[in-house]
Amino acid sequence: MKKLLSIICAFTLILGGGIFLSACGDPANNQDGATSGLKFALTENNTYSVTGIGTAKETDIVIPSEYKGLPVTEIGYSSFDGENIVSLTMPDTITIVKGEAFKDCTNLTSINFSNALTNIGMYAFKNCSSLTEIIIPDSVTKIEEDAFHGCENVTTLKLSANCSSHIGDIFNGQKVKDITATAGAIDNFRYSNFETVTIIGEDEIPSSFMWGNNSLKKVILPSTITKIGREAFYYCDNLKDIYFNGTLEQFCNIEFESRDTLQYTDNLYINNELVIDVVVPEGITKIGENFLAGYKKLNSVVLPDSVIELSGTAFFKCENLTSLKMGANISSEDNKILDQCNNLQELTITSELLNKVDGGGSIELPKLQTLTIVGDTLEIEDTLIKNLKNLYISQTVTQIGAIYVSSIENTYFMGGLEEWCDITVQSTGDEENYILPITENFYIDGEIVEGDLVIPDGVTNLEEYSFYGLDITTLKVPDSVTEMGSYAFCNSKNLVKVELPANEGVASIFHGCDNIKEITTPLIELKGFKNLEVANINLGTVVNSQFNDCANLKTIILADTFTEIGQESFKNCPNLENISFGENLKKVGRRAFINTTNIKNVYYNGGLEDWLAIDFDTAVCGNLYIQGELLTDLVIPAGITTINAYAFCYNYGLKTAVIGEDVTYISEHAFDSCSNLTTLTLMDSITDISANAFTSCNKIIEVYDLTNLDLTTNKSKYNGIGLAKVIYTSLSSPSIIRTSGDYEYFNYDGTNYLLSYTGTEKNITLPTSLGGGDYEIYSCAFYGNDIIESVNVPNGVTKIGESAFRQCPNLKEVNVSGEVEYIDKWAFEGSKNLTTVVLEEGVKEIGGSVFSNSGVQNLVIPESVVSIGASSNFPALEYVGGVAYVDNWVFYSDEFNLSEVSIREGTIGIARNAFSHRSSLTSLTLPSTLRYIGNQAFYSCSNLTSITIPSSVVLIENQAFADSGLTSAKFQNKSSWFETDDIFATSGTTINSTTLSNLQSAAQALVKQYYNSWKRV
Fold it and tell me: 866-1017: which CATH number, 1.10.3470, 3.80.10, 3.30.1490, 1.10.10?
């Protein structure tokens, strides 16, 4: 029977290739690929265990899944010990490999473990020295001691994620390069030469995990990791890549115990993407300790608004981090959040957090160029920022404090202009450190704020300092704005035009806006605005000193709301020409226009009756326009009984005046200096005319007198009229004013007088005769004329009267013939563009203040002149009886360029203020005849550096050279000088001649001579 079976098997082998031959002799051969001849034993669990190699001849062992219809579940103890096996494949029915099962299988090179395997016994694969790769399935829960001992050539090892056995207990090979295991399985493995470590099935990497492993190049972390212990990869100097197989959100939740976790790696991959630019997802609330600390490839990080907590070392030593953007809700208790981020160029952060960052002074951000402040407050303390160029302000900011960074070039507000207007800029008392004055360029919503700034309609409030120091040239604020911070536009140095609405609470202070030329505003402080030319004050009631020292103010317009111009309101406004105010004005205070002498036009919006009701304590100078009409011919209306003081004072346009039939009293200075008033009609209702009512009305030549008063010209009470060439006439008499071409003239007492010029020619030569003979130029004949540029005064003119060419703004050149014997006081005063005056021989006398405040630069005084402003102001000394004087204020000026002065021999006195404030004066020669130098004669001649005091000088009054530029003073007579407060004294405090012998000390003494005069006996 056995023989027959053998024949059948042989036949089958021939026909079918031999695979069924084994099956014929071995029940396991019913499975494709299973190794035949293996030995089996039935277990107590009614399964089979492989117990030996049996008759099997193959070196590639495939364990069958069944034997005799039952599952094969075990590989028994020492079942293949020492066998010549090359490969091993286990079916998924195998659950246990018992001890020494494959011990000493030195030719075993590969193992395919069962996916149901749970236990590998002691020494199960001991000394399997040909193995290079071991892949243990995650089903394995236990590997007994030394299971793979002696597998010394294994380079790739994967352990089960569910096995707690430590590699050091089961394996001693030192050639493993690539290992996959739980962190606990390989923690601190002393034979470690791992190059690639893949962690599986863990949520924590223990401290010192791969400490000092210089072979380590790559680490792969599972998404389940929640904690990495201290120094886990410390001194892993060759670590190149760390892969985290989870999401960025999962990575954000990892707890890093030390800040060196990423310090030794070149590359971090999250979900297989290289981490360079990190955008943390919305929803993350905390960035923990050491988040990306030490990671060298990190370039930028964006943290969303959901993050509310940031640890101090999250970005420690991220040396190549260039951009960090944090949300507005982040806080941190640590002051070192930017420690060693030295290449940071762009930072978004809250002010509160930024100001906390200093690291005890150790942190610096030397390359930070761009800073964006988020949150509701902007304030930068004097901390770590030194070279910042660009500052961005989030639209969420509502409050701004001081900014202690001086290098900012550009500031960007990321909201709109309306939002910027709502921001509060706090006063810290340190104006230099507000945000706007320290930036060169300021942008709102991407547009640079410069040139014309128009606040949008609908804005109701402009906060304090909100436009401080901006490079704007014009400003327009709409009517919707009802409140404005006092310093909203301070230090806008290029601002030239301002328009503010007439709303209470809108008044702003424009401190430092020195170039404003035109402004429309409620009443504000504008004192000292030297470039201001036009001021339209659209709201207010009382002007006080808000416009003092506005040197170039030309036009002031006061709204109808104003009731009073207070004392010294327009003090020192020398160029003020036009003033306008409304019908509600009730009072003009004392000295309201002191040192403001060039007013030409006064515009009054009320009627003549209203004007006459104003209480004037001082004059409002200039041509008077009543409701837009120039007042030239005045008729006082019925019902007016008194003409108030100063009512028409300095009214240059007034030519005729008829004093109404109800007027009983003309107050003092009522018509003072009406320099073009020629005809005056007085009614018999007048009972009194105050002294000085008509002072300096020098053109009055016709008085129609119906009064009962004695108006003789020499009565002191009426000296206002008496100074004029008064000719008494009756109402029926014809006018005595005559015309010759473009000139008006009259004859009085045999003398012809040129009264005025009515022409339009700029360059004129005066007539050689008027009325058939010589003539005088009458007082104020050309006063204030803004047409003429040059005047030739020919033979035939014998005198130039008082103020004849005073304040002619365009007059540049005057030539005076020698037949003019006398030039009266103030003749050219205030003609600021007059640079050239030629006086021919024959001129004998020049009155006081003739050239004061003119532009005269070069002037030659003819030898014929015997007196320049012969003055009663000279001290009554017995030796003053001389031949020539330089009178007070003759050449006074604070503007023009008289550089060289040589005072002619024969001159004995220089009166007070004769050359004061001539800052251009550099050279001065005093004559040997000089005996007297008056008070402030050369005061504030700041460029006069040297002087020689002749031996003839016996009196130098106080402040004669005070505040000058003297550095050298030579006294030809140094002795017998004393100091006194009484110029008539014969003794006093002796001045040490040693002091006067030294050029420098003498000069210093003169410069500081304030209180007393110097006299020589």
Answer: 3.80.10
